[in-house]
Amino acid sequence: AYYNRDYSANTENLLPSVSRPANLSRTFYGIMFDAGSTGTRIHVYTFLQKDPAELPILENEMFHAVKPGLSAYADKPEMGGDTIRQLLKVAKKTVPRSEWKKTPVVLKATAGLRLLPEEKAKALLNEVQDVFDESPFLVTNSSVSIMNGTNEGVLAWVTVNFLTGHLYTHTRKTVGILDLGGGSTQITFLPKSKKTVYSAPPSYIARFNMFNSTYELYTHSYLGNGLIAARLATLGALGADGLEWKVFTSSCLPKKFREEWTFGGITYKVSGIPDGYAGYKLCYYEVMRVIKGIVHQPYEVKGSSIFYAFSYYFDRAVESGLIDGTRGGIVEVRDFKKRAKEVCNKMTKYRPISPFLCMDMTYITCLLKEGFGFKDNTVLQLAKKVNNVETSWALGATFDYFHNLNIH
Ligand SMILES: Nc1ccn([C@@H]2O[C@H](COP(=O)(O)OP(=O)(O)O)[C@@H](O)[C@H]2O)c(=O)n1
Protein backbone atom coordinates (compact mmCIF):
# COMPACT_ATOMS: atom_id res chain seq x y z
CA ALA A 1 0.00 0.00 0.00
CA TYR A 2 2.80 2.39 0.82
CA TYR A 3 5.28 1.21 -1.72
CA ASN A 4 3.27 -0.15 -4.56
CA ARG A 5 -0.40 0.58 -4.91
CA ASP A 6 -1.00 -2.91 -6.22
CA TYR A 7 -0.58 -4.29 -2.75
CA SER A 8 -4.08 -3.65 -1.62
CA ALA A 9 -4.42 -6.25 1.13
CA ASN A 10 -3.94 -3.94 4.06
CA THR A 11 -4.78 -0.62 2.47
CA GLU A 12 -7.83 0.02 4.65
CA ASN A 13 -5.73 -0.14 7.76
CA LEU A 14 -2.88 1.88 6.41
CA LEU A 15 -4.43 4.93 4.89
CA PRO A 16 -6.06 7.56 7.07
CA SER A 17 -9.80 7.03 6.90
CA VAL A 18 -10.62 10.72 6.44
CA SER A 19 -9.16 12.26 3.30
CA ARG A 20 -7.33 15.47 3.97
CA PRO A 21 -6.59 18.45 1.71
CA ALA A 22 -3.75 17.52 -0.61
CA ASN A 23 -1.81 20.69 0.14
CA LEU A 24 -1.14 19.42 3.67
CA SER A 25 0.77 16.40 2.31
CA ARG A 26 4.48 16.69 2.08
CA THR A 27 7.18 14.43 0.64
CA PHE A 28 10.42 13.92 2.49
CA TYR A 29 13.38 11.55 2.35
CA GLY A 30 15.59 9.61 4.74
CA ILE A 31 18.90 7.84 4.09
CA MET A 32 19.79 4.95 6.40
CA PHE A 33 22.98 2.90 6.19
CA ASP A 34 23.01 -0.58 7.73
CA ALA A 35 26.65 -1.38 8.47
CA GLY A 36 26.32 -5.10 9.15
CA SER A 37 28.99 -7.70 9.80
CA THR A 38 28.71 -9.23 6.32
CA GLY A 39 27.86 -6.18 4.22
CA THR A 40 26.93 -2.51 4.09
CA ARG A 41 23.50 -1.49 2.77
CA ILE A 42 21.89 1.80 1.93
CA HIS A 43 18.15 2.39 2.18
CA VAL A 44 16.75 5.61 0.71
CA TYR A 45 13.14 6.06 1.80
CA THR A 46 10.61 8.40 0.24
CA PHE A 47 7.82 9.27 2.65
CA LEU A 48 4.53 11.06 2.27
CA GLN A 49 3.29 12.78 5.39
CA LYS A 50 -0.45 13.36 5.35
CA ASP A 51 -1.14 13.87 9.01
CA PRO A 52 1.65 15.05 11.32
CA ALA A 53 0.15 13.03 14.17
CA GLU A 54 0.49 9.70 12.35
CA LEU A 55 3.34 7.68 10.96
CA PRO A 56 4.03 8.74 7.38
CA ILE A 57 3.18 6.64 4.34
CA LEU A 58 6.19 4.95 2.78
CA GLU A 59 6.08 5.70 -0.92
CA ASN A 60 9.31 4.10 -2.04
CA GLU A 61 12.48 2.37 -0.91
CA MET A 62 15.69 2.40 -2.91
CA PHE A 63 18.03 -0.32 -1.67
CA HIS A 64 21.60 -1.19 -2.53
CA ALA A 65 24.09 -3.50 -0.82
CA VAL A 66 27.83 -4.11 -0.98
CA LYS A 67 30.07 -6.81 0.48
CA PRO A 68 32.12 -7.16 2.61
CA GLY A 69 31.07 -5.11 5.63
CA LEU A 70 33.00 -2.24 7.25
CA SER A 71 34.65 -4.55 9.78
CA ALA A 72 36.61 -6.19 6.94
CA TYR A 73 38.42 -2.82 6.59
CA ALA A 74 39.47 -2.70 10.25
CA ASP A 75 43.10 -2.12 9.22
CA LYS A 76 42.39 0.19 6.28
CA PRO A 77 39.54 2.49 7.33
CA GLU A 78 39.93 4.77 4.27
CA MET A 79 38.90 1.87 2.05
CA GLY A 80 35.90 1.32 4.29
CA GLY A 81 35.03 4.98 3.82
CA ASP A 82 35.19 4.50 0.04
CA THR A 83 32.41 1.90 0.16
CA ILE A 84 30.21 4.51 1.85
CA ARG A 85 31.17 7.13 -0.75
CA GLN A 86 30.12 4.75 -3.53
CA LEU A 87 26.76 4.03 -1.92
CA LEU A 88 26.10 7.75 -1.37
CA LYS A 89 26.15 8.22 -5.14
CA VAL A 90 22.99 6.12 -5.26
CA ALA A 91 21.38 8.42 -2.71
CA LYS A 92 22.19 11.48 -4.83
CA LYS A 93 20.41 9.90 -7.77
CA THR A 94 17.32 9.09 -5.71
CA VAL A 95 16.82 12.27 -3.67
CA PRO A 96 16.05 15.43 -5.71
CA ARG A 97 18.87 17.98 -5.48
CA SER A 98 16.58 20.56 -3.89
CA GLU A 99 16.01 18.14 -0.95
CA TRP A 100 19.65 17.18 -0.27
CA LYS A 101 20.24 19.73 2.47
CA LYS A 102 17.07 18.71 4.34
CA THR A 103 17.61 14.95 4.00
CA PRO A 104 19.29 13.23 6.95
CA VAL A 105 21.95 10.61 6.34
CA VAL A 106 22.50 8.14 9.19
CA LEU A 107 24.72 5.07 9.59
CA LYS A 108 24.19 2.48 12.28
CA ALA A 109 26.61 -0.39 12.72
CA THR A 110 25.67 -3.73 14.24
CA ALA A 111 27.55 -6.85 15.36
CA GLY A 112 30.53 -6.47 13.01
CA LEU A 113 31.72 -3.31 14.74
CA ARG A 114 30.52 -4.39 18.18
CA LEU A 115 32.93 -7.34 17.91
CA LEU A 116 35.95 -5.22 16.85
CA PRO A 117 38.44 -3.70 19.30
CA GLU A 118 37.16 -0.22 20.23
CA GLU A 119 39.94 1.80 18.53
CA LYS A 120 39.44 -0.01 15.24
CA ALA A 121 35.69 0.50 15.33
CA LYS A 122 36.21 4.18 16.19
CA ALA A 123 38.62 4.70 13.30
CA LEU A 124 36.06 3.26 10.89
CA LEU A 125 33.25 5.41 12.28
CA ASN A 126 35.46 8.55 12.07
CA GLU A 127 36.13 7.77 8.45
CA VAL A 128 32.39 7.43 7.77
CA GLN A 129 31.74 10.72 9.58
CA ASP A 130 34.29 12.44 7.27
CA VAL A 131 32.58 10.99 4.19
CA PHE A 132 29.19 12.17 5.49
CA ASP A 133 30.56 15.64 6.31
CA GLU A 134 31.73 16.12 2.74
CA SER A 135 28.31 15.00 1.40
CA PRO A 136 25.50 17.47 0.64
CA PHE A 137 23.07 15.76 3.04
CA LEU A 138 21.97 16.66 6.56
CA VAL A 139 24.58 15.44 9.06
CA THR A 140 24.65 15.82 12.86
CA ASN A 141 27.05 14.55 15.47
CA SER A 142 24.81 11.55 16.10
CA SER A 143 24.64 10.51 12.44
CA VAL A 144 27.23 7.75 12.81
CA SER A 145 27.13 5.20 15.62
CA ILE A 146 27.13 1.59 16.76
CA MET A 147 23.55 0.68 17.57
CA ASN A 148 22.84 -1.33 20.70
CA GLY A 149 21.20 -4.74 20.46
CA THR A 150 17.95 -3.63 22.10
CA ASN A 151 17.39 -0.95 19.47
CA GLU A 152 18.25 -3.40 16.72
CA GLY A 153 15.53 -5.78 17.88
CA VAL A 154 12.91 -3.12 18.61
CA LEU A 155 13.44 -1.27 15.33
CA ALA A 156 13.20 -4.43 13.24
CA TRP A 157 9.94 -5.18 15.06
CA VAL A 158 8.69 -1.66 14.22
CA THR A 159 9.62 -2.19 10.54
CA VAL A 160 7.86 -5.51 10.14
CA ASN A 161 4.76 -4.50 12.06
CA PHE A 162 4.53 -1.27 10.07
CA LEU A 163 4.89 -3.13 6.76
CA THR A 164 2.32 -5.76 7.73
CA GLY A 165 -0.14 -3.08 8.81
CA HIS A 166 -0.16 -4.01 12.48
CA LEU A 167 0.81 -0.61 13.81
CA TYR A 168 -2.31 1.00 12.43
CA THR A 169 -4.91 -1.22 13.98
CA HIS A 170 -5.97 -0.77 17.55
CA THR A 171 -6.32 -4.46 18.28
CA ARG A 172 -2.75 -4.73 19.52
CA LYS A 173 -2.34 -7.80 17.36
CA THR A 174 1.26 -7.82 16.22
CA VAL A 175 3.85 -10.24 14.87
CA GLY A 176 7.14 -11.26 16.48
CA ILE A 177 10.44 -11.09 14.63
CA LEU A 178 13.48 -13.32 14.38
CA ASP A 179 16.56 -11.80 12.80
CA LEU A 180 19.68 -13.88 12.20
CA GLY A 181 22.67 -11.78 11.19
CA GLY A 182 26.28 -12.75 10.72
CA GLY A 183 27.48 -11.61 14.15
CA SER A 184 24.32 -11.41 16.25
CA THR A 185 20.75 -12.66 16.39
CA GLN A 186 17.64 -10.96 17.68
CA ILE A 187 14.24 -12.10 18.97
CA THR A 188 11.51 -9.53 19.60
CA PHE A 189 7.78 -9.81 20.29
CA LEU A 190 4.95 -8.14 22.16
CA PRO A 191 4.12 -10.39 25.12
CA LYS A 192 0.47 -11.20 25.70
CA SER A 193 1.08 -12.54 29.16
CA LYS A 194 2.48 -10.57 32.09
CA LYS A 195 4.42 -13.66 33.13
CA THR A 196 6.66 -13.32 30.07
CA VAL A 197 7.59 -9.83 31.26
CA TYR A 198 8.31 -10.57 34.90
CA SER A 199 10.04 -13.90 34.28
CA ALA A 200 12.49 -12.34 31.78
CA PRO A 201 15.82 -10.76 32.72
CA PRO A 202 14.94 -7.05 33.18
CA SER A 203 17.25 -5.96 30.33
CA TYR A 204 15.19 -8.10 27.94
CA ILE A 205 12.15 -5.84 28.31
CA ALA A 206 12.18 -2.64 26.25
CA ARG A 207 9.63 0.15 26.12
CA PHE A 208 9.01 2.80 23.51
CA ASN A 209 6.34 5.28 22.54
CA MET A 210 4.36 5.54 19.34
CA PHE A 211 0.95 7.13 18.67
CA ASN A 212 0.74 8.18 22.31
CA SER A 213 0.87 4.60 23.51
CA THR A 214 3.73 2.77 25.15
CA TYR A 215 4.72 -0.64 23.85
CA GLU A 216 6.47 -3.11 26.12
CA LEU A 217 8.44 -5.66 24.12
CA TYR A 218 10.47 -8.74 24.92
CA THR A 219 13.71 -8.30 22.97
CA HIS A 220 17.27 -9.49 23.06
CA SER A 221 20.28 -9.49 20.78
CA TYR A 222 22.76 -12.33 21.27
CA LEU A 223 26.19 -11.09 20.26
CA GLY A 224 28.31 -13.93 18.92
CA ASN A 225 25.23 -16.00 18.04
CA GLY A 226 24.82 -14.71 14.51
CA LEU A 227 25.18 -17.41 11.90
CA ILE A 228 28.79 -16.70 10.90
CA ALA A 229 30.01 -16.09 14.45
CA ALA A 230 28.27 -19.33 15.44
CA ARG A 231 30.18 -21.21 12.73
CA LEU A 232 33.43 -19.98 14.28
CA ALA A 233 32.25 -20.85 17.78
CA THR A 234 31.20 -24.33 16.66
CA LEU A 235 34.65 -24.82 15.13
CA GLY A 236 36.23 -23.55 18.34
CA ALA A 237 37.86 -20.76 16.33
CA LEU A 238 36.18 -17.71 17.87
CA GLY A 239 38.92 -15.78 19.67
CA ALA A 240 41.42 -18.66 19.26
CA ASP A 241 45.17 -18.12 18.79
CA GLY A 242 47.57 -19.86 16.43
CA LEU A 243 45.40 -19.12 13.40
CA GLU A 244 48.44 -19.42 11.10
CA TRP A 245 48.82 -23.12 11.76
CA LYS A 246 45.62 -24.39 13.43
CA VAL A 247 43.01 -26.18 11.31
CA PHE A 248 39.54 -26.09 12.85
CA THR A 249 37.46 -29.20 12.20
CA SER A 250 33.83 -30.15 12.55
CA SER A 251 31.54 -33.09 11.87
CA CYS A 252 29.12 -30.55 10.38
CA LEU A 253 31.40 -30.19 7.33
CA PRO A 254 31.90 -32.57 4.40
CA LYS A 255 34.73 -34.99 5.29
CA LYS A 256 37.01 -34.02 2.44
CA PHE A 257 36.35 -30.31 2.68
CA ARG A 258 39.29 -28.02 3.41
CA GLU A 259 39.32 -24.27 2.92
CA GLU A 260 40.59 -20.89 4.13
CA TRP A 261 37.74 -18.72 5.16
CA THR A 262 37.64 -15.02 6.07
CA PHE A 263 35.29 -13.24 8.47
CA GLY A 264 35.73 -9.76 9.99
CA GLY A 265 39.10 -9.44 8.24
CA ILE A 266 40.52 -12.60 9.88
CA THR A 267 41.32 -15.79 7.93
CA TYR A 268 40.68 -19.25 9.38
CA LYS A 269 41.67 -22.71 8.11
CA VAL A 270 38.71 -25.03 8.37
CA SER A 271 38.09 -28.62 7.35
CA GLY A 272 35.87 -31.64 7.75
CA ILE A 273 37.09 -34.67 9.70
CA PRO A 274 38.62 -36.82 6.90
CA ASP A 275 38.59 -40.17 8.69
CA GLY A 276 35.86 -39.43 11.22
CA TYR A 277 32.07 -39.27 11.25
CA ALA A 278 29.94 -36.51 9.85
CA GLY A 279 26.19 -36.06 10.01
CA TYR A 280 23.22 -34.45 11.70
CA LYS A 281 23.46 -36.05 15.16
CA LEU A 282 27.12 -35.27 15.78
CA CYS A 283 26.71 -31.86 14.29
CA TYR A 284 23.75 -31.14 16.57
CA TYR A 285 25.89 -31.91 19.65
CA GLU A 286 28.58 -29.56 18.35
CA VAL A 287 26.31 -26.59 17.72
CA MET A 288 24.47 -27.25 20.97
CA ARG A 289 27.55 -26.05 22.87
CA VAL A 290 27.13 -22.62 21.29
CA ILE A 291 23.52 -22.33 22.45
CA LYS A 292 22.88 -24.33 25.62
CA GLY A 293 22.74 -22.14 28.70
CA ILE A 294 23.25 -19.00 26.65
CA VAL A 295 19.89 -18.39 25.06
CA HIS A 296 16.97 -17.48 27.32
CA GLN A 297 13.62 -19.16 26.72
CA PRO A 298 10.81 -16.66 27.03
CA TYR A 299 7.78 -17.99 28.88
CA GLU A 300 5.40 -17.23 26.04
CA VAL A 301 7.23 -18.40 22.97
CA LYS A 302 5.66 -21.81 23.43
CA GLY A 303 2.36 -20.12 22.65
CA SER A 304 0.92 -19.50 19.25
CA SER A 305 2.01 -16.06 18.05
CA ILE A 306 3.29 -15.64 14.48
CA PHE A 307 6.95 -14.89 13.97
CA TYR A 308 8.47 -13.27 10.90
CA ALA A 309 11.93 -14.67 10.27
CA PHE A 310 14.28 -13.00 7.83
CA SER A 311 18.00 -12.39 7.02
CA TYR A 312 19.89 -15.71 7.24
CA TYR A 313 16.77 -17.65 8.27
CA PHE A 314 15.38 -16.71 4.87
CA ASP A 315 18.61 -17.19 2.91
CA ARG A 316 19.23 -20.71 4.25
CA ALA A 317 15.61 -21.76 3.81
CA VAL A 318 15.92 -20.79 0.15
CA GLU A 319 19.30 -22.46 -0.38
CA SER A 320 18.19 -25.72 1.18
CA GLY A 321 15.05 -25.73 -0.96
CA LEU A 322 12.63 -25.24 1.94
CA ILE A 323 10.96 -22.22 0.34
CA ASP A 324 10.93 -20.38 -2.97
CA GLY A 325 13.24 -17.37 -2.99
CA THR A 326 10.96 -15.05 -4.88
CA ARG A 327 7.81 -15.74 -2.91
CA GLY A 328 9.07 -16.56 0.57
CA GLY A 329 6.80 -18.85 2.53
CA ILE A 330 5.42 -20.27 5.72
CA VAL A 331 7.20 -23.12 7.48
CA GLU A 332 7.11 -24.80 10.87
CA VAL A 333 10.14 -25.24 13.10
CA ARG A 334 9.99 -28.97 12.37
CA ASP A 335 10.56 -28.25 8.66
CA PHE A 336 13.97 -26.73 9.45
CA LYS A 337 14.83 -29.83 11.48
CA LYS A 338 13.74 -32.21 8.74
CA ARG A 339 15.69 -30.33 6.10
CA ALA A 340 18.78 -30.04 8.35
CA LYS A 341 18.81 -33.83 8.71
CA GLU A 342 18.49 -34.29 4.98
CA VAL A 343 21.28 -31.80 4.23
CA CYS A 344 23.66 -33.25 6.83
CA ASN A 345 23.09 -36.84 5.87
CA LYS A 346 23.57 -36.09 2.16
CA MET A 347 26.50 -33.70 2.36
CA THR A 348 27.88 -34.42 -1.10
CA LYS A 349 24.56 -33.52 -2.70
CA TYR A 350 24.40 -30.14 -0.96
CA ARG A 351 28.09 -29.32 -0.98
CA PRO A 352 27.95 -27.36 -4.28
CA ILE A 353 25.32 -25.06 -2.74
CA SER A 354 27.48 -24.47 0.34
CA PRO A 355 29.81 -26.71 2.34
CA PHE A 356 28.44 -24.94 5.45
CA LEU A 357 24.78 -25.69 4.74
CA CYS A 358 24.61 -28.62 7.17
CA MET A 359 26.20 -26.58 9.96
CA ASP A 360 23.97 -23.58 9.24
CA MET A 361 20.71 -25.55 9.05
CA THR A 362 21.57 -27.50 12.19
CA TYR A 363 22.44 -24.28 14.02
CA ILE A 364 19.14 -22.69 13.00
CA THR A 365 17.22 -25.77 14.16
CA CYS A 366 19.08 -25.88 17.46
CA LEU A 367 18.68 -22.12 18.04
CA LEU A 368 14.92 -22.28 17.49
CA LYS A 369 14.32 -25.42 19.54
CA GLU A 370 16.92 -25.61 22.31
CA GLY A 371 17.64 -21.87 22.29
CA PHE A 372 14.35 -20.01 22.19
CA GLY A 373 12.33 -23.10 23.08
CA PHE A 374 9.97 -23.03 20.10
CA LYS A 375 7.75 -26.03 19.62
CA ASP A 376 7.99 -28.15 16.49
CA ASN A 377 4.75 -26.68 15.21
CA THR A 378 5.60 -22.99 15.75
CA VAL A 379 4.86 -21.18 12.49
CA LEU A 380 7.51 -19.01 10.90
CA GLN A 381 6.74 -16.61 8.10
CA LEU A 382 9.93 -16.37 6.05
CA ALA A 383 10.37 -13.13 4.12
CA LYS A 384 13.13 -11.00 2.66
CA LYS A 385 10.79 -8.18 1.82
CA VAL A 386 7.27 -7.26 2.84
CA ASN A 387 5.33 -5.29 0.20
CA ASN A 388 8.62 -4.86 -1.65
CA VAL A 389 10.40 -3.22 1.30
CA GLU A 390 13.41 -4.80 3.07
CA THR A 391 12.56 -6.45 6.39
CA SER A 392 15.40 -4.77 8.25
CA TRP A 393 15.65 -2.53 11.31
CA ALA A 394 16.60 0.31 8.93
CA LEU A 395 13.03 1.54 8.33
CA GLY A 396 12.25 1.49 12.05
CA ALA A 397 15.49 3.39 12.68
CA THR A 398 14.39 6.03 10.19
CA PHE A 399 11.06 6.43 12.03
CA ASP A 400 13.02 6.71 15.24
CA TYR A 401 15.13 9.48 13.70
CA PHE A 402 12.10 11.52 12.71
CA HIS A 403 9.79 10.74 15.65
CA ASN A 404 12.08 9.80 18.55
CA LEU A 405 10.42 6.63 19.76
CA ASN A 406 12.33 7.02 23.06
CA ILE A 407 13.37 3.37 23.34
CA HIS A 408 14.26 2.53 26.92
N1 LIG B 1 18.55 -5.43 4.33
C1 LIG B 1 19.10 -6.62 4.59
C2 LIG B 1 20.14 -6.73 5.53
C3 LIG B 1 20.70 -7.97 5.78
N2 LIG B 1 20.26 -9.05 5.13
C4 LIG B 1 20.84 -10.38 5.37
O1 LIG B 1 21.24 -10.52 6.73
C5 LIG B 1 22.35 -11.38 6.82
C6 LIG B 1 23.56 -10.77 7.51
O2 LIG B 1 23.26 -9.80 8.42
P1 LIG B 1 24.36 -8.74 8.90
O3 LIG B 1 25.57 -8.77 8.05
O4 LIG B 1 23.68 -7.42 9.01
O5 LIG B 1 24.75 -9.30 10.31
P2 LIG B 1 24.83 -8.55 11.74
O6 LIG B 1 25.89 -7.51 11.63
O7 LIG B 1 23.49 -7.95 12.02
O8 LIG B 1 25.16 -9.66 12.67
C7 LIG B 1 22.68 -11.74 5.39
O9 LIG B 1 22.01 -12.92 5.08
C8 LIG B 1 22.11 -10.60 4.60
O10 LIG B 1 21.87 -10.95 3.26
C9 LIG B 1 19.20 -8.93 4.24
O11 LIG B 1 18.76 -9.90 3.66
N3 LIG B 1 18.65 -7.71 3.97
From TrEMBL:
PANTHER family: ADENOSINE/GUANOSINE DIPHOSPHATASE (PTHR11782), NUCLEOSIDE DIPHOSPHATE PHOSPHATASE ENTPD5 (PTHR11782:SF35). It is found in: Endoplasmic reticulum; Secreted. Pathway: Protein modification; protein glycosylation. It comes from the Eukaryota. Its cofactor is Mg(2+); Ca(2+). It comes from Megalops atlanticus (Tarpon). The keyword Cell membrane does not apply. This is nucleoside diphosphate phosphatase. It catalyses: IDP + H2O = IMP + phosphate + H(+); a ribonucleoside 5'-diphosphate + H2O = a ribonucleoside 5'-phosphate + phosphate + H(+); GDP + H2O = GMP + phosphate + H(+); UDP + H2O = UMP + phosphate + H(+). Hydrolyzes nucleoside diphosphates with a preference for GDP, IDP and UDP compared to ADP and CDP. In the lumen of the endoplasmic reticulum, hydrolyzes UDP that acts as an end-product feedback inhibitor of the UDP-Glc:glycoprotein glucosyltransferases. UMP can be transported back by an UDP-sugar antiporter to the cytosol where it is consumed to regenerate UDP-glucose. Therefore, it positively regulates protein reglucosylation by clearing UDP from the ER lumen and by promoting the regeneration of UDP-glucose. One of its GO terms (cellular component) is endoplasmic reticulum. Its EC number is 3.6.1.6. Belongs to the GDA1/CD39 NTPase family. It is an enzyme of class 3 (hydrolase). Monomer; active form. Homodimer; disulfide-linked. Homodimers are enzymatically inactive. ATP binds at G182, G183, S184, T185, Q186. Keywords: ATP-binding, Calcium, Disulfide bond, Endoplasmic reticulum, Glycoprotein, Hydrolase, Magnesium, Nucleotide-binding, Secreted, Signal. Its main location: endoplasmic reticulum. GO terms for molecular function: ATP binding; nucleoside diphosphate phosphatase activity. The active site is at E152. Transmembrane segments: none annotated.
